[in-house]
Amino acid sequence: CGRGQAQTQWSGSSPHGVSASAGDIGIRNALVVADEDGRQATILALFTNSGQPDELVTVRVAGTDAEPEGGPLTIPARGTVSVGPDHTRVDVTGVDAQPGRRVDVEFIFANAPRVSISALVQPAEGIYAGALQPR
Questions:
Q1: Burial class (CB in 10 A: 0-12, 13-18, 19+), 102
Q2: Which of 20, 67, 97, 102 is the residue whose CA sits 20 to 30 A from 1?
Q3: Distance from C-alpha of 64 to C-alpha of 79, rounded to nearest angstrom
Q4: Are 44 and 33 in contact (CB under 8 A)?
Q5: Euclidean distance between CA atoms 86 and 9, whole angstroms
Q6: What is the per-residue pLDDT for 59?
Q7: What integer pLDDT is reported at residue 135 of this predicted model?
């Protein structure tokens, strides 16, 4: 038997993401990309849903709240959705997220329980170059 790998939104390997579960919602490969001073950041993650439709309402990064671009993000029943530069954005400004360190990230859903992870902060370079919104 061969081992299959799911396609991700980034080329190259990304061993830095964190996975977690919140009820029927799975969070896969979640990480934070930040600028040099750690004041501007964006969230990258894939959400899976094995139950009823839900919504990602807020993401709290190091105590600073951010909402998905355009309002709550629907996570379809038995479906997936991503956040990141090529998908719905979740950008955070005025945060303390220094590249190379870990930061607490809390995902808040309409129905699923809240879940917190300790995510690695990646610099906006290499495969993450272009992930941040221009200032």
A1: middle
A2: 20
A3: 28
A4: yes
A5: 8
A6: 98
A7: 65
Strand 54-61 versus strand 40-49 pairing type: unpaired
Per-residue tens of pLDDT for the chain, all 135 residues: 444 434 334 433 446 799 999 999 999 999 999 999 999 999 999 999 999 999 999 999 999 999 999 999 999 999 999 999 999 999 999 999 999 999 999 999 999 999 999 999 999 999 999 999 876
Report residue 54 as tokens.
Answer: 């839900």
Tally Cβ neighbours within 10 Å of residue 12.
Answer: 8
Amino acid (one-letter) located at 126: G
Counting Cβ atoms within 10 Å, is residue 1 exposed (0-12), middle (13-18) or buried (19+)?
exposed
Tally DSSP H helices, then E strands, for the chain. 0, 10
Q: What is the CA radius of gyration of the chain?
A: 14
What residue type is 123 in one-letter code? Answer: P
Residue 96 three-state SS = coil
User: What proportions of the chain, in percent to the nearest 5, are helix, strand and coil?
Assistant: 0, 45, 50
pLDDT of 9: 41
